[in-house]
């Protein structure tokens, strides 16, 4: 028995949509290798359901996992990276837009929970300094409000969402209007102070920097600081 | 003095409770580097807290000493840095393979006990130990398909072929063994051999650490190593049999699934601790590598 052939056959038995009798015969004990197949595959079904719990309530994910394992078998060494590989294997254009967006929301939350981008050294927040944004934060735009987790229907209504890692390793969400989303995306570039960022974004969007705007800006920044989306200013 | 006594696998489901209680029966903790590499947040925070109170030993999941696919430096380099940072006395991983052609099954599949496989395991073990520049230990796994062997002497041993294979591998590489007592018991029940005879064939002076865990018995009688049930009486008895022969090596309570309350875990650790004390009362602690 050649070891490379043995390992390739066992891997095919694990991932093929239907294991071949030739491989099972080659490996020796058909029933026991089918036990292995069940053990291996159950982990993949399980981790995908863990990563996409709400989507799993709307569509049967198992056939998508079966196709993933058969057509683009997992290569990630770290188990937590498997949902991203699953996500990449699916043609989400074949699904309604809101389901695609729900998948994006859930994989973003999954990723932010373990993101290891280093947190910057920070000092107190100041308008004349470069803002320090939580490196786990992602600003996402949706056509359907799939982030309303209590709902089961999502008629079209565009909106923005900041997904970030909060305490206890949980993915947190914060709704943002278009101006706030544009501001935070500009902040994330990390090359200009707050005042410059605000001026640039307002100019691009044709918005006046008046008293009402500044009051609203203060509320948004306070909210972001309170949530840990803004960490302060870069030291 | 080296690490000895009972350890417990640090799992997120129970880590906070364990670190708050700090039970007397638990002397050290074990972590899977794959759960911490390239990861921030709560995992990193809890590991920092654990390190303040306990020695940490690392145990990997994906080194696959029997795999024919070459290692990637993208895996070994961060692992090397992690082991150095944690100051683990050794790192252990499994005598198995975990896929082919870069595809990862995320399970511990059995290698055949052939001469070719022995060459692969020895070469891979040595390569990893050299690259990591760290002591390594290899763990025997549970297997559910009958082992394949083409070597006459090993074939004659039947279910004990794995012990002969491991012995040859450890002697050829001057290696260390992470002896999983539950895996020996599971295999002995699935394939009908005497687990004590298995232990007696091994070079037990090479054991640096042991694992004990619970397993599942399916309706058809097949035993599956789930780490999701309490340790059975037979495994407790086997631990008591082998501990005086290995010396006071650290013993890990492995519980990865179906994790019970911290009280139940501590009770199980206390049972292990009592066995440990009884079985090693006349043996000195090993000096860790």
3D structure, described in words:
Helices cover 51% and strands 12% of the residues of chain A. Chain A folds into two domains: 1-90, no CATH class; 97-235, Outer Surface Protein A, domain 3. In chain A, strands 1-6-2 form a three-stranded antiparallel beta sheet. Chain A is mostly helical and 235 residues long. Chain A is built from nine helices and six strands. Chain A has helices at residues 3-15, 21-27, 30-51, 62-71, 82-89, 97-114, 178-189, 194-205, 211-227; strands at residues 122-123, 131-133, 138-142, 159-165, 171-176, 230-234. The model of chain A has no long low-confidence stretch (mean pLDDT 96). The longest helix of chain A is centred in the first third of the chain and has 22 residues, at 30-51. In chain A, a hairpin with a 5-residue loop joins strand 4 and strand 5 (171-176). In chain A, helix 1 packs across helix 3. Chain B has 289 residues and is an alpha/beta fold. Chain B has a domain at 57-252: Divalent-metal-dependent TIM barrel enzymes (TIM Barrel, Alpha-Beta Barrel), CATH 3.20.20.150. In chain B, 42% of the residues lie in helices and 18% in strands. The termini of chain B are close together. At the A-B interface, helix 1 and helix 3 of A face strand 5, strand 6 and helix 4 of B.
């Amino acid at each position: 028995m050649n070891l490379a052939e043995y390992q390739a056959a066992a891997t095919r038995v694990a991932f093929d949509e239907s294991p071949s009798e030739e491989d099972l015969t080659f490996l020796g004990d058909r029933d026991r290798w089918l036990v292995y197949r069940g053990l291996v595959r159950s982990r993949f079904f399980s981790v995908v359901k863990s990563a996409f719990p709400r989507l799993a309530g709307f569509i049967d994910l198992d056939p998508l996992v079966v196709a993933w394992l058969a057509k683009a078998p997992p290569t990630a060494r770290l188990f937590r990276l498997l949902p991203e590989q699953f996500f990449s294997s699916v043609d989400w254009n074949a699904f309604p837009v809101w389901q695609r967006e729900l998948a994006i929301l859930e994989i973003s939350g999954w990723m932010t929970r373990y993101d290891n981008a280093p947190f910057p050294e920070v000092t107190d927040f100041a308008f004349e300094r470069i803002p320090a944004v939580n490196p786990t934060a992602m600003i996402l735009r949706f056509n359907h409000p799939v982030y309303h987790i209590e709902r089961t229907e999502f008629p079209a209504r565009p909106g923005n969402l900041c997904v970030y890692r909060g305490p206890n390793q949980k993915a947190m969400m914060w709704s943002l209007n278009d101006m706030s989303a544009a501001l935070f995306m500009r902040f994330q570039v990390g090359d200009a102070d707050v005042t410059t960022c605000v001026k640039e974004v307002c100019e691009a969007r044709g918005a006046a920097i008046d008293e009402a705007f500044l009051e609203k800006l203060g509320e948004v920044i306070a909210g972001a600081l309170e949530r840990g989306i803004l960490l302060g200013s870069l030291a | 003095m080296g690490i000895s006594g009972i350890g417990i696998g640090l799992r997120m489901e129970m880590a906070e409770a364990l670190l708050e209680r700090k039970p007397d029966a638990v002397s050290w903790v074990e972590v899977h580097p794959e759960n911490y590499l390239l990861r921030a947040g709560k995992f990193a925070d809890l590991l920092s807290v654990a390190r303040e109170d306990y020695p940490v030993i690392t145990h990997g999941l994906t080194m696959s000493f029997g795999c024919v696919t070459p290692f990637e430096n993208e895996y070994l380099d961060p692992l090397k840095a992690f082991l150095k940072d944690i100051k683990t006395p050794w790192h252990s991983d499994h005598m198995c393979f975990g896929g082919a052609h870069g595809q990862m099954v995320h399970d511990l599949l059995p290698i055949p006990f052939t001469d070719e496989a022995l060459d692969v395991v020895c070469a891979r073990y040595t390569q990893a130990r050299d690259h990591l520049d760290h002591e390594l230990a290899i763990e025997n796994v549970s297997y559910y398909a009958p082992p394949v062997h083409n070597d006459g002497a090993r074939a004659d041993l039947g279910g004990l072929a794995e012990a002969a294979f491991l012995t040859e591998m450890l002697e050829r590489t001057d290696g260390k063994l992470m002896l999983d007592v539950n895996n020996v018991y599971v295999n002995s029940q699935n394939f009908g051999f005497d687990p004590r005879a298995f232990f007696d064939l091994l070079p037990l002076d090479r054991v640096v650490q042991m694992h004990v865990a619970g397993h599942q018995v399916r309706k058809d009688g097949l035993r599956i190593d789930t780490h999701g049930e309490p340790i059975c009486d037979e495994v407790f008895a086997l631990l008591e049999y082998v501990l005086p022969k290995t010396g006071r090596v650290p013993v890990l309570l492995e519980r990865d699934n179906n994790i019970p309350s911290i009280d139940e875990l501590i009770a199980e650790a206390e049972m292990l601790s009592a066995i440990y004390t009884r079985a090693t009362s006349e043996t000195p602690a090993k000096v860790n590598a």
